[in-house]
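Structure in, sequence out. Go:
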């Protein structure tokens, strides 16, 4: 009885596979179709993001070192002058399509040891598209001179 089921399953799957075939002369968007089966594309839409800025103490504009700045899956740390920069090829769908709002997340990773303890914050970005995209690559988006002013955590 099991052999009958295997034959029926093989027949059903074979029938489905044959229904997807197309003529080798069938024209598709970018040239003649394959001899057998549908055209399959692999990949995930992505874009390039280039961001940079400076982290300062809100009260006196002193540059802050050791502050983590995160965008999508990338995290960088500000240097001794409070400067940071980030270049990322990411899958974050912001800056194009219907997703225009992007956020930058900022936290004080070293706590009180790096010149004080500062409040975490989230900033909305205003990205500018600087290079066009294609089918799966949506282009390059940039924002520079992002000023991040952090307030100290109040102790009670």
């Amino acid at each position: 009885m099991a052999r009958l089921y295997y034959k029926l399953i093989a027949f059903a799957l074979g029938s489905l596979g044959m229904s997807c075939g197309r003529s080798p002369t069938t024209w598709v968007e970018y040239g003649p179709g394959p001899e057998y089966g549908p055209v399959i594309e692999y990949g995930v839409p992505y874009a390039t993001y280039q961001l940079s800025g400076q982290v300062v103490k809100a009260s006196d504009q002193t540059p802050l070192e050791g502050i983590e700045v995160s965008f999508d899956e990338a995290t960088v740390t500000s240097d001794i002058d409070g400067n940071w920069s980030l270049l990322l090829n990411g899958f974050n769908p912001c800056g194009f399509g219907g997703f225009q709002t992007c956020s930058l997340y900022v936290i004080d990773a070293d706590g009180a040891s790096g010149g004080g303890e500062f409040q975490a914050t989230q900033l909305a970005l205003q990205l500018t598209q600087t290079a066009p995209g294609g089918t799966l690559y949506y282009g390059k988006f940039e924002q520079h001179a992002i000023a991040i002013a952090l307030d100290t955590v109040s102790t009670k």
